[in-house]
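A common beginner's mistake is to predict each chain separately and then try to dock the pieces by hand. The better habit, illustrated here, is to supply every component at once so that their relative placement is modeled jointly.
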Amino acid sequence: VDLVERMLAGDVRALARLITYIESRHPELPQLMEKAYSHGGEAHIIGITGPPGAGKSTLVDKMTMHFREQGKRVGIVAIDPSSPFSGGALLGDRIRMSQHASDDGVFIRSLGTRGSHGGLSLATREVVRLLNSAGFDIIVVETVGVGQTELDIMELADSTVVVFVPESGDTVQTMKAGLTEIADIFVVNKSDREGASIMYRELQLMIEMANAKPWTPRLLSTVASKNEGVSDLVEALAEHQSFLSESDIGQKKRRAGNLVEFIEILTGEIGDRIRDESAQDGLAELIEQVKSGKTNPYLAALTVLRDPVLLRDLFAFDGKKKDSD
Amino acid sequence: VDLVERMLAGDVRALARLITYIESRHPELPQLMEKAYSHGGEAHIIGITGPPGAGKSTLVDKMTMHFREQGKRVGIVAIDPSSPFSGGALLGDRIRMSQHASDDGVFIRSLGTRGSHGGLSLATREVVRLLNSAGFDIIVVETVGVGQTELDIMELADSTVVVFVPESGDTVQTMKAGLTEIADIFVVNKSDREGASIMYRELQLMIEMANAKPWTPRLLSTVASKNEGVSDLVEALAEHQSFLSESDIGQKKRRAGNLVEFIEILTGEIGDRIRDESAQDGLAELIEQVKSGKTNPYLAALTVLRDPVLLRDLFAFDGKKKDSD
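With all components supplied together, the output reads:
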C-alpha cells in the first residue's frame, strides 16, 4: 500500500513495480489496486492499432513529441502479443523511443501475453488505470492488431486510431465494415510511398459507405518518420476528445468500460483462485469430480451458479485460508 | 433436450443446430450441454495450427481421407479468427473440402470470433465435446495461429500439429522455444519447394536443443497437395495417442482441460449474466455504482468475492428471475 502512495506521489519506480505486480498477478494486487483506483484521473486514453510494419511505434514516438510540447505527461503501454506467428518486433521498435528515455514526463512499458490466460485485456486496463491515477494526461495503448485479444483491448480507449500503409489494401478489404466500428481516426502512414492515394481513396469510400453517426471517422495521411501530418493527428484526437465530452458517447464508453473491468476482475479472480487450488470443502470435492471426469464441467458450473455460496472458501484475501464457515 | 437425443442418435442437423446454439449463447445452452456432456466419447482430438498459407486445410483434407479409409468418423472444427488483420481465408479453403461434403462420416464446421468476448476458446471446447458425444472417432481443430486465443485453443487437443512451409523461417526464429512447448508433431508442408531442407534442419536443431521429455516432438515432411507424407503423419498421430494412453500425460491433459472448461463455463456465465443485466437487488445497485464510477471495479469485485451470495440473483435458469431470496 505504501507502494501505491509512492506512485501517487510521482515515484516512477513504484509505478513500475506495481505494473510488475499486475503482470505476475501478485497476491496483494486486489488491495493495492483498490487503493490505487480510488484516485481517478482525467487522462485521454488513445488506442493505436494496425498491421505489423505500419509504423505505429514511430507514429507514437512523434505524437509523444507533440504532446510533450503541449506540456502533457504521456504514458505509453505497448502490447506485445508474443504470439508465435505474429512476431515480437515491438522491443526493437521501442529502442527507437529512447529519445524519451531521459524525459520523466514520458513513461513507456511493454506488456506481453506469454502465459496469461486471456488476462491481457484486464492487465492492460489495470495498467491504464494506474497511469491515470499517477496523473498522466495522455495514455497511449499500442497493439499489433492481429487477433480478438487486441480488438478487445481497443475497447478501453477513448479514441482509437487505426494505422495502415499503402500496402495494406488486402487487409482493408478483408476487414471492411469491422474497421469503421473500431476506428475513430484512420491514418495512412508512409503516405509518400506508391499506392498511398489508392489506399486513401479506398478508406474514404469505406467511411462514406459506413455513414457513421454522430462521429464520422477522420482520415489522415502521415509520414511519421518525417513528422509529416502528425500535428494534424494530434489535433484530430483533441477534436474527438471534445466530441466525447460534449456528447454522451464518452460517458457511455466509460460506463461500459467500467462494467467490463468489473466483470474481468471478478471472473478473473474466481478463475485464478480455482486454478491455484484455493478451493476447499464442497467446492474442492466438486472440482476433483470435474477433473476426473466423474462430473461434467457444465453440471458442475450449474451447481456453483445455483449455490454461489460454494465460492466463499476461495477468498481469504489476508493470505490465510478460511478455517471455517 | 429432444435436440440432444436426436444428436446422440446420429442426426447431423440436430448437431448443427446445437453448434448454432453454442455460437449464439442460446439461453437453454446450460441444460442442453449438461445433457449432452453426460455422454462422453473417446475421440482423438487433434489440433492443427500454423501461419496462414501453410496449407493446413489441404493437409486436413488429406488426413481425413486416410482416417476415412480406416473407417473412422471425422469431425472438423475450423476456427476462423475473423481478425481484422489476419484475413479470413478459411471459407475459401473449406470449399476444397467439398469432396467430403456428401460423406456422412465427415462433419465440417467453422467457428468465428466476431462479437465474442474471449468466448471462442470455450465455444470450441463445447463443440469438440458435442462431436465427442456424437461419436466421432477423430476430431480435428484447425486454427490459423496468429494470437493468444488460438494458442489457448490448442490446449484442448490431445495431439498438436504445427505446420510450416519452407518460407516460414522468420516465424520459427521468432517463436523458438515456445514452439516446442505446444507442438507434438512438426510438419514441413510444401516440402518440394526450395528451402525445405533448410527449414527441416532448423526445426530439427530446435527440437534437439529443447530436449523435450518424455515425448520428443516428431518432425515430418509433407506435400499435402500430392498426398505425400500424409500417411506418415497419420501414423505419428496414432503413435502420440498411444504414448498419451500409456503414460499419465494424457490423463493429466484431460484433467487440466476439464478444469479449464469448468472455469470458462462458470466465469463465462457469470460475465454473460452481469452483461445481460440479469442482476437484481444488491448486485444491481453495486453494478450501477461501478458503471457510474462511484465505486471502483476492484472494490466492487472484492465486495462480491467476499460475499458471493450476491451472485445468487443472476441465475434463474428456468428463464424466470428469482422473486425472493
